[in-house]
Amino acid sequence: MIAIIDIGTGNLSTIERVTGGKITMEPGEIEGAEKIIFPGVGSFQYVASIIRPVRKILINRIKSGIPYLGICLGLEMLFDSSEEGGGEGLGLIPGRIKKFAGVKTPHMGWNQVKNLTDLPIMGGIPDNSFFYFMHSYYAPDTAYTAMETDYGGYFTSGIMYGNIYGVQFHPEKSGDAGIRLLKNFGAIA
Amino acid sequence: MLAKRIIAALDIAGGRVVKGVNFENIKDSGDPVELAKRYVSEGMDELVFLDIKATVDKRKILSELVKRVASEISIPFTVGGGLTELDDMVSIIRNGADKIFINTYAVQHPEIIESISDRIGTANTVIAIDAMFRDGKYNVYINGGSKDTGLDAVQWARKAASLGAGELLVTSINADGTMKGYDVNLLKAITGAVNIPVIASGGAGKPADFLDAFNAGADGALAASIFHRGIYSATDIKKYLMENGINVRL
User: Fold this and answer.
1) In this predicted structure, what is the pLDDT of residue A169?
2) What percent of chain B has pLDDT over 70?
3) Are strands A145-150 and A137-138 parallel, antiparallel or unpaired?
4) Which stretch of DSSP H or E encloses residue A31?
5) pLDDT tens figures, B31-45
6) Domains (ranges, CATH) in chain B?
7) Is B87 assigned a catalytic role?
8) Exposed site from A174, B31, B75, B93, fewest CB < 10 Å?
9) Is residue B187 scored above 50 in pLDDT?
10) Distance from CA of B67 to the nearest CA of A (A)
11) A45 interface with B at CB cutoff 8 Å
12) How far apart are CA B194 and CA B201, in angstroms?
């Protein structure tokens, strides 16, 4: 079962339909999931507070090596903290989420994603394809930066760390390329 | 690089598309979902649904329509028209819209912008501004463009942005419906005053109008009639823009 973490904002129907996952916030279901998708909408502090009851379970499941896909705040939550506000991330990747400076914020619209490595979730999707972004904060450059996007300079738009994937854009809103990404994640063994 | 966005507006009343739509190959041209799908297949970047009856009748936007759109299309869409309650806005997002926009209510209760952006996120909070050029300046109009507030549109834009708006949807009442081009001066004034994305609205009639809007600093350009009537598709406009040096998603 693919658990789609339900934080009470955002529509998960596309993700549910494409991946065949189950929208849930039940600790038991998250614990038993074979894969986890965490689509985050809202502020860092809001999402951090909502997931507090299942934080430990999430950390343990992801550390156990099952495939994880974090979308937008679901990527940001992998880090320790954010400039956006208080609250603890999952702390699986060291670092603090930063706010854009010197560019129109939010970064909103279709932008191109450049793959820095071979990514199973990007299989069959041409490099530099457009995806939809809607965010004011972004992840720092780390050893796990696997995708980059140019917005007044390149920033980390995707990460890969073992079976952990994070994308700053919204595949569920990115037309055919996004649907393909979700299908690819669903197909990872 | 971030692409400039082409956005189609769909006016809705009672869950149906208002204004004449004459498309072949659409089973039910009054069905917003069928029309939305057609737009997506023709390269549209984003959609805006305006419930035109809601302000007048105080009716809630049909959550069923939002759910249907969300389940059948996979590009972003914004919903608005007469929204006043935070709970209604959250529920629209919950049902699948990516952004909500408010207009009249935000002018009357600016503090709600902070509450909305705190709850659903800044990027999901759009403030729509209807402006009319009068006596040498742009005034903000409310109630579907029927009432002059005397408020300066550029000052209001700045205030909305500082309160947490993530995007501005700026309509020129003078240009709206003329199909003679966007109000470039209004766009220059607003984009020069804020550091958030600005969507141009009102007056689009031909591809060159979109080029003018982007050259004036707009991040997206919205139109209704030229798409409804099938005069141009989003792809037609994007090809023209690309030839003229604008970065678009093709």
Assistant:
1) 98
2) 92
3) unpaired
4) helix A27-32
5) 899 999 999 999 999
6) 5-243 (3.20.20.70)
7) no
8) B31
9) yes
10) 9
11) no
12) 17
B130 catalytic per annotation: yes
> Which residues on chain B are in Cβ contact (under 8 Å) with A107?
2
Nearest CB to B95: which of A11, A151, A172? A11
Whether B196 and A106 lie within 8 Å, measured CB to CB: yes
Question: Whole-angstrom Cα distance, residue A52 to residue B67?
Answer: 29
Neighbours of B24 (CB within 10 A): 6
Considering only CA atoms, give the Rg of chain A: 15
The token pair at A109 is 């619209």
- B75 with A106: Cβ contact below 8 A: no
In eight-state DSSP terms, residue A46 is H
In this prediction, residue A144 carries a pLDDT of 97
- Can you say how many angstroms the Cα of residue B73 is from the centroid of all Cα atoms in its chain? 18
What residues of A are in contact with residue B76 (Cβ under 8 Å)? Answer: 132, 134, 170, 173
CA torsion through residues B207, B213, B216, B220, sign:
negative
Chain B positions touching chain A (beta carbons under 8 Å): 1-5, 40, 45-46, 67, 70-71, 74-76, 90, 93-98, 118-124, 166-167, 195-197, 219-220, 249
Position B18 scores a pLDDT of 81
Residues lower than pLDDT 50 in chain A: none
Q: How confident is the model at residue A41, as a pLDDT? A: 80
Count how many pairs of residues, chain A against chain B, have C-beta atoms within 8 Å.
101
CATH number of A2-187: 3.40.50.880
Q: Is the model's pLDDT at B22 over the cut of 50? A: no
DSSP string, B126-174: EEEEEEEEETTEEEEEETTTTEEEEEEHHHHHHHHHHHT-SEEEEEETT
Show residues of chain A in contact with B74, CB under 8 Å: 14, 172-176, 178-179
Give A-chain residues touching B195 at CB under 8 angstroms. Answer: 104-105
Mean pLDDT of the residues in chain B: 91
Q: Measured between CB atoms, which of B70, B123, B220 is closest to A11?
A: B70
Domain boundaries, chain A: 2-187
Given this model, what pLDDT does residue B62 score?
65
Whether the Cβ atoms of residue B185 and residue B137 lie closer than 8 Å to each other? no
Q: Assign B27 a pLDDT band (cuts: 50, 70, 90).
A: low
Residue B20 has pLDDT above 80, yes or no: no
Checking if the pLDDT of B129 tops 50, the result is yes
Mutation test of the interface with chain B: which of A108, A111, A151, A174, choosing the one with the most B Cβ atoms within 10 A? A108
Q: Residue B1 CB: number of other CB atoms within 10 A?
A: 10
